[in-house]
Write a structure and sequence with these properties.
The complex is a heterodimer.
Chain A: H1 10-13, E1 52-57, H2 65-75, E2 92-98, E3 105-111, H3 119-123, E4 129-131, E5 137-139, H4 149-153, E6 160-161, E7 180-181, H5 187-191, H6 197-200, E8 206-210, H7 217-225, E9 240-243
Parallel strand pairs in A: 1-9
Antiparallel strand pairs in A: 1-8, 2-3, 4-5, 6-7
Chain B: E1 6-8, H1 24-36, H2 65-86, H3 101-108, H4 126-133, H5 140-143, E2 174-176, H6 177-181
Antiparallel strand pairs in B: 1-2
Classes of the chains: A alpha+beta, B mainly alpha.
The structure holds iron/sulfur cluster (SF4) (2 copies).
Residues 112-115, 118-120, 137, 154, 156, 158-159, 182, 236 of chain A line the site of one iron/sulfur cluster.
Amino acid sequence: MTSKIEKEDLSRRNFVFGSIAAAGLTVAPGVMLYQTANARDLSKPVSSKVRWGMLIDTTKDVDWNKCVEACVKEHGLGNEEHSRADQRTQYIRVVDVKNKTTGYSMSLPVMCQHCEKPPCVDVCPTGASMKREDGIVLVDRHRCIGCRYCMMACPYKARSFVHETLTDQKTTTPRGKGCVESCNMCVNRVDNGQLPACVEVSEGAIVFGDLNDPESDISRLLAKHGGKQIRADLKLNPGVQYQGI
Amino acid sequence: MWLQLNINFSFSSLLKGSLQKLPLSVAGLALMASFTTVNAEVEQDELGPRIEIPESSGKSCVLPEDEIRRKHPDMLKHDRILTLREGVRAKADGNNLDGSLKQCINCHAIKDDNDQYVRIDNDKHFCVSCHKYAAVTIDCFQCHRDIPEGSSNFHALSGHKNTDFSSVTPGSYGLTVKDMANIAPEVSSDDK
Ligand code: SF4
Ligand code: SF4
């Protein structure tokens, strides 16, 4: 099924990256820690004390397509039969960018950036597009009317629309025709104390953790090396940050 | 054409006078149907498509049968808000069986003669068997999975994890149109 998840071509996507600076920061290998695992009382609502985030080190020599594959497998994506390739759902995709002047090129995985101030939530007429207290942005498909307003509003083109009747969904990721969907930061896994699927296969290149906890790996890495947000100028404060872009 | 109604319930508690607690939709339909039943020669009690409502584990559900029948739509709606929007994954009272659709499916999935789980397009599917009879369209399974993900893949929080499902024995009980017509409709909703 992964073959259906096409790499996005440069021209469509490079508007996101006005310029690329190759900072070349490296994070200590093997960091894939999740201190707060199971710490949460599952009978209580999530709280805004936690804010989940991801730090993606694009300088690592990782095949990002592995992350796409893991995502597809985790959420049972790619089961559309009639949709065109560009209509099929993508939660995460690999974007190739090239600086035309220097010829420097690189790849990076882009998923929903889990904005602190998500425009997709602002525009949703039904309250379907929502941000959980812990910063994970989701579509409540019970309320989604499929207007696709959020798809227009998202500056990262993170969202997809399901065009056809689906069967054999994963129990953990209900999804169906007429609803918009996007990366949910593997909320099913996170609530279980597991790492998101893409993080797990990233060989340490993606660090997941609590941005609000200064002692978490992600916070310490960010404090030490810094991180970059895509289109930081929009001031949406995404929870997904990058190194090496 | 005459409408024939004879529901075949497997829950023996219905015998004990809990009929008045059946869901409104079923009761309402039965009420309507009782007016349209015009064939005089046939005993009403003998009429009708019979739905076999299969039992699950034989162990307890989240609520007693009469309550779950009435309240399950509200429970599902309540829990979907709690779980999806607020991130609650278990019930606060320590009783981990909750109103999650996944849990319903895991316990109530029905297998056909070939030992395959029947899907939502099959009248034997637990949810379909009643809802089709009551002419209630269920949209849940446009998104939700209609069968368990694997026989051992129970809800992480399931209290049924150690249940021996091989000992499941379906039973049946006949419920007539007259019975149904006597059920007073009650309306409840958490839409506030
Ligand atoms: S990246 Fe797009 S879909 Fe994700 S929170 Fe931001 S605006 Fe919404
Ligand atoms: S498509 Fe759904 S989630 Fe997106 S704005 Fe419309 S109703 Fe909201």
